[in-house]
Amino acid sequence: QDNRVSIWSVGDLGNAGLNGEYHGEPHLLCDIQHNGDVMDMQFLDQERIVIASSTGTVTIFRHHQNNQTLSANHRWEKAHYHVGQDTSWGGAACTGVVCSNPEIVTVGEDGRINLFRADQKDAVRTIDNADSSTLHAVTFLRTTEILTVNSIGQLKIWDLRQQRNEPSQIFSLAGDRVPLHCVDRHPNQQHIVATGGQDGMLSIWDIRQGTMPVSLLNAHEAEMWEVHFHPSDPDHLFTCSEDGSLWHWDTSTNVSEKPSFLHQGGRSTAYLSHSTINQSVVSAWLSNDPTKDRMEITNLIPNQTLSVNSLDVLGPCLVYGTDAEAIYVNRQLFA
Amino acid sequence: APLTDTVPPQVVPGADPSARQLCFAWGPAEVLVCETLFGRASGSHSRCPSRSLSPSRFWGEGSAGAVAPALTGSVTGTGEGAPSSSRVFVVRRDQDIYIQTLRKLFNESHGIFMGLQRSEEELAGKSRKAQLVQVSKNYRSVIRACMEDMHQAAVLTRDPALQGQYSTQVSILSAMELIWNLCEILFVEAATAGPLLLRLLDWVRLHVCDVDSMVREVLSSDSPSKHKLFWNVVDVFVLQGRMDEARHLLSKEASANPTSMNMYKILDDLMKKMPVPSLGNTQTLTELELKWQHWHEECQRYLQDGTFASNPHMESICKILLGDEDAILEKKELMTTWYHFLVTRLLYSHPTVKPMELRFYAQSSMDLFLGGESSPEPLDMILMAAFEFEMHQVIKECSIVLSNWWFVAHLTDLLDHCKLLQSHNLYFGSNMREFLLLEYASGLFSHHSLWQLGVDYFDHCPQYGRVYLELHIERIPLSTEQKALKVLRICELRQMHEQVRSICKIMAMKALRNNRLGSALSWSIRAKDAAFATLISDRFLKDYCERGCFSDLDLIDNLGPSMLLSDRLTFLGKYREFHRLYGEKQFPEAARLLLTLMTAHIAPCSFWMTLLTDALPLLEQKEVIFSAEQTYELMRCLEDLTAGNPDKQKFQDDDIETTKVEMLRLALARNLARVIVKEGTVEGS
């Protein structure tokens, strides 16, 4: 198999056409061979990228911007492996990686959590058998706390300051233990967490209270692979799924300002009645009163075919990749 | 051009049937060929050569124009006592799918294919036709985009072998686009007399580009009319019906050469006035024919008057305008192909040609052009078949010549949507469109990631698609959980329950072997596989018995409704709950639960001894926990257990077992005594 990690340039704004639409395709700057499937990746800093591989290896690549090349900077082989195996076949896929320079946390199919530091050869801390099932994703809750989701539908908080290998808190869905695949935390209000499940359900949790989600939103028809709050505009949430759709969840619309029949929808717009007691204080994501606010949900993909595996959003730009081996860039998300 | 090579029979490189007898076995996408120990001369004992796993992978090269078997790997083994090593060959048919630059073609065309299948069937007549023409154009633009990429890759690469491969691919793609374009004009759009000629002109202009560099050279020179190739370029324009450009160039010549001003004016006028078919409905065919006849006669007059006699170039142009075959044939090198000759002939002698008349002109054009010097090549035969409106012939020839089913599968599908193919029953019952799509999709399945496209193709093969999918989907290697999930989702959407169960079992077994009990349980829940859930629970219980404590408490404590999947799992959950209650010192509840576990037969018999032993501390508590009823129940359970089969007890454990039983009997008796007294005591007395 020939898997590569690539860096693309999406051109400058000077290429905008008549209506401000973006013309031209993403242009490949450099790429490098990678062993195994790329399961997850994240920028560590301006130049370094951490890649999680299906072979269980975690690699840091450095992007040299002067001559546009990529080179492998550091590698932790067998960061994830299955017990008792030390041949290459014993590797376990590393399913998620999250960075907070210089710390890197990885999780994998072996139920292991690793904490690395970018400059250190060995793992700073490893929690073996942190979970009896596969850990699908990880994200930082606070600087010393992380959130993980697993394949028996549990959301766990781990405090990395503590030496014990137990989660400090476990949340789970009521009813069937549907595997959770992705997790993201609200950028400003750290108690609000969103997770996506194998049945395409979006769950919003308030981790200050209770062990069950605050709201369950029926979203996609298949696995939800990624969920992201918009980093600077967290009233907007994006989810992508195996069913080939990418949904934009918008709670910023206030019914009192615009009559609903004047809402401009996307290809398929649905209105979910979503409530809030006191919108100015409590975030629109935590809602109790179904009569008040509305949430606008838009499918951003007109002709969906194959799965959308991954997405990322920054400012007015949205980028996502599909199983049809295509990358799409939308540079005018809020136009 | 690669399509011109005749196709020799291909042998698996390295396998020599004259030295050893070969045997083979069909796989889903590959053929295994292996050398046996049967020599050719002597009939030795039959023994399969043993193989050691030291694969040496190398790609075979099929000649690009043949359906060549490609050697994708060979395994060298050492037979026992054999003088030389024997080998196993893995022969794979469709190696084009591994060409990196073609992946774009496969992916994009998949999108177009799906769009076509989903498109509105109710649209009738013109709008449907326009839609189908658009689809055809989309396919062609994908081919062209791929050609561009391939060309770029050929330019940038430094490896000469790769460069050769890319260049070959570019020529193949170019030929494919040529054929597709012609099929679009003749079949999809079904251009009628009039517009037919215009389309054919466009087609020729687009695809005969050998002269482009010459044209560029002349146009960019300082004084084009002095360039030695000047008249060649003018001829090219005239032959391709590009009147405006020809006139523009001629004007330069006229201004440089005032003596021929008169001739030039007349020629220019003739060229300007030439009637051509129009795309709109501005004139009928009869009108056009009349005008054309009139114009033709005018040209004839000028020629016969000797107006152009002093300038052979202009005279030859006039002859061409009159459709003089010999004059046109003189410019063979500028036309390069017989189909260019055909179109030029039609332009200047039968501009209102009807589609059905094309075959005659095509055949005669080819004969005249090739003139017995060379014989037609495969590409020529394909185009000829198209001009003769023999669709099946076109598809058949393309299938033979091309090394990959992509082209014929998509073209046939499009033609089928145009309702042009009658169902042509092959001996195994499915029609041609389905057959080709099945072949193409099967090829995709041997690729580690393009198989996802194949799924959609199978979906649109009504007769055998599902069966093929069922067979293929189980063989996809599931290297990560995410891949398994994708495959599972595909199976679930199509109600392929067998495959769902089978895949979940595979993943659960893998997880179990790696000691990931939670993952294993998660897979059994997905498949609703009670038997496997029982297996997992037994593992947990075994672990507990061996270690005295539970592993993976986070899982057992949080089973939720999935506990009900299997009895053993329910027992596990409840048993853990018992331990928790005990730990929280909720003794009466714990006692009640323990008893229920035994009396309701949730616990397996093998576990009863453990449960009774767990009851011991409860019996020994200062407070009386078990009521009389409960104590009687416990005693009954104990008797059931010991009376059951005394032979079962092993001799080693005899002492321990009997001691346990003794202790239990004692504790139960003591508890009974205490509880009788307690229950018999009247309060307050």
Automatic annotation (TrEMBL), chain A:
Compartments where located: Nucleus
InterPro entries in the record: WD40/YVTN_repeat-like_dom_sf (IPR015943), WD40_repeat_CS (IPR019775), WD40_repeat_dom_sf (IPR036322), WD40_rpt (IPR001680)
Superkingdom classification of source: Eukaryota
Keyword Repeat: yes
SMART domains: WD40
Gene3D superfamilies according to UniProt: YVTN repeat-like/Quinoprotein amine dehydrogenase
Main location: nucleus
Keywords: Nucleus, Repeat, WD repeat
Residues spanning the membrane: none
Pfam families linked to this entry: WD40
An example Gene Ontology CC term for this record: nuclear pore outer ring
Signal peptide, first to last residue: none
WD repeats: 173-215, 217-259
Name of protein: NUP43 protein
Source organism (scientific name): Drymodes brunneopygia
Chain's gene name: Nup43
From TrEMBL, chain B:
Highest taxon above the source species: Eukaryota
GO CC, one annotated term: nuclear membrane
Key words, A-Z: Membrane, mRNA transport, Nuclear pore complex, Nucleus, Protein transport, Translocation, Transport
GO biological process: mRNA export from nucleus; positive regulation of DNA-templated transcription; protein import into nucleus
One MF term in the entry's GO annotations: structural constituent of nuclear pore
InterPro entries: Nucleoporin_Nup85
The keyword Protein transport is annotated on this UniProt entry: yes
Annotated signal sequence range: none
Pfam family, one: Nucleopor_Nup85
Localization in the cell: Nucleus, Nuclear pore complex
Family indicated by similarity: Belongs to the nucleoporin Nup85 family.
Summary of subunit composition and partner proteins: Component of the nuclear pore complex (NPC).
PANTHER family linked to this entry: FROUNT PROTEIN-RELATED (PTHR13373), NUCLEAR PORE COMPLEX PROTEIN NUP85 (PTHR13373:SF21)
Function (record text): Functions as a component of the nuclear pore complex (NPC).
Protein name: Nuclear pore complex protein Nup85
Gene: Nup85
